[in-house]
Amino acid sequence: MSTGVIVVVMGVSGSGKTTIGECLAAACGVEFGDADRLHPPANVAKMVAGHPLTDADRWPWLHTVLAWMNDHADGVPVTDLGKELDVVAVVGCSALKRIYRDVLREAECPVRFAYLRGTRAVLTERLRHRQGHFFPEQLLYAQLADLEEPGPGEDAVVASIGPPPDEVLRQVINGLRGGATA
Ligand SMILES: Nc1ncnc2c1ncn2[C@@H]1O[C@H](COP(=O)(O)OP(=O)(O)OP(=O)(O)O)[C@@H](O)[C@H]1O
Ligand SMILES: O=C(O)[C@H](O)[C@@H](O)[C@H](O)[C@H](O)CO
């Protein structure tokens, strides 16, 4: 069994999970898994119609994400940074509630969460400017209502999304190394 870590980049829609997660995976030389692409079609249809997902909608999806994580738990980091941090894969997943994160913590390797924290104003602005994506902006408010920020016992890295992606990535990497973040 691998002892390497899977990093789950989490946060509400528009916080930068895909952007920062892909950068982190590339910097570590490991695969990136986008949980958005693992939703069953019924969930996507619901969100496109403007309806927020419920717990019942999210359980099967979270288990699909967990299966992806288990398939990648034996990944091997290629770059020096990946080896230093022992990151074997990176996932972008909203993981809004602690009970959702607890499902992902059942993975066959250690899991660290990197929470991308942003103000409502910045998040709204980012979603407004994003092209070709299915997520309606009004669902952001439902996601913010569902969001439970990681608590003290969760050992999560927290990064502020205000600065450009390179700086957000630096905060995440610094946090994974055990240093100060946002
Ligand atoms: N630090 C940043 N500075 C400026 N723009 C950013 C930053 N991070 C992400 N963006 C932009 O904000 C938008 C949302 O980012 P992204 O799609 O990565 O978010 P997400 O959390 O994956 O969203 P979703 O959950 O809806 O897929 C994109 O247009 C992206 O290019
Ligand atoms: O938990 C959820 O409500 C979903 O995962 C959403 O976060 C969407 O998948 C994503 O944000 C789409 O852009």
TrEMBL record:
**Pathway assigned to this chain's UniProt record:** Carbohydrate acid metabolism
- Name it: Gluconokinase
Organism lineage string: Bacteria, Bacillati, Actinomycetota, Actinomycetes, Micromonosporales
Instruction: Supply the source organism for this entry.
Output: Luedemannella helvata
Q: Which InterPro entries match?
A: P-loop_NTPase (IPR027417), Therm_gnt_kin (IPR006001)
Pfam families under this entry? AAA_33 (PF13671)
User: Which family would the database say this protein is a member of?
Assistant: Belongs to the gluconokinase GntK/GntV family.
* SUPFAM superfamilies per UniProt: P-loop containing nucleoside triphosphate hydrolases
EC code(s) of this entry: 2.7.1.12
Q: Which reaction does it catalyse?
A: D-gluconate + ATP = 6-phospho-D-gluconate + ADP + H(+)
Transferase is among the record's keywords? yes
Q: Which Gene3D superfamilies match?
A: P-loop containing nucleotide triphosphate hydrolases
What keywords does the record list, in alphabetical order? Answer: ATP-binding, Kinase, Nucleotide-binding, Transferase
